[in-house]
Design goal:
2 copies of one chain form a homodimer.
Chain A lengths: L7 H8 L4 E6 L5 E6 L2 E3 L2 E7 L3 H8 L2 E7 L7 E13 L4 H11 L10 E14 L5
Antiparallel strand pairs in A: 1-2, 1-5, 3-4, 4-7, 5-6, 6-7
Chain lengths: 134, 134
């Protein structure tokens, strides 16, 4: 798997509001995956989760993650990155989930009551298939 | 996360030719994910890979996997399963990849030259969001 910097064709795919799946590690090392919103934020990937998610505890215990992004136009084009969450921060004022929600749905996040946490994935390696193939 | 048996609404989603992402573990425990075809085969999930894939070595070393399936009609409906590959078998005559290719693309797999391996995921736990929510 190549290392960063990401070529433009990969950045272009990651910049779109595509379906994605993130995998974290349970404390026993079992991988657990779930669909997620993400946002290319500089050279890192922003994700955001409800503050009560067990996934948050997993990330505190072991920050290693994998994220696969499927091109919504054709999921045979896809990019996967492996890396780690290098920053976890309370999403004060829900500013980050609003950025994500606006990116995906064109409006602020509807639930204003549940506290959320943001995480930034530092990309260590990536691999592309289809139009993004390395 | 609930344990099997899977309710019908989850089996119905898994029975469709949906986009999916599988995660395996590198030898150092780092999760690595990639888009994949899958097929609900009885109570297990069939996946298939090129015999030269590093992923195959990973599965020999640690059979734990996670699979997230996105409803192609709306990826806000999704199901994730965690479990392990309980069987790995050479895909003799490419019978299994042809089943997968027919399911997804309506025809046999075009590459008849590269040997492939089939794996069956035994589901230990699952979780659904959207229409499949538990």
């Amino acid at each position: 798997m190549p290392t960063p910097p990401l070529p433009d064709r990969v950045r272009d795919l990651l910049a779109k509001a595509n379906p994605a799946v993130i995998t974290t590690l349970r404390e026993d090392g079992q991988p657990v995956s779930v669909a997620t919103w993400y946002l290319l934020d500089g050279d890192r990937l922003l994700v955001n989760m409800d503050a009560t998610r067990k996934r948050l505890q997993h990330l505190h215990d072991d920050p290693r993650v994998s994220l696969t992004v499927l091109d919504e136009a054709s999921w045979y084009n896809h990019v996967s990155v492996v890396g780690r969450i290098t920053e976890l921060r309370d999403d004060v004022g829900l500013a980050d989930i609003d950025r994500l929600s606006t990116h995906y749905r064109g409006r602020d996040y509807p639930d204003r009551d549940s506290p959320r946490v943001s995480g930034w994935i530092e990309i260590e390696r990536w691999h592309g298939w289809g139009a993004t193939q390395g």
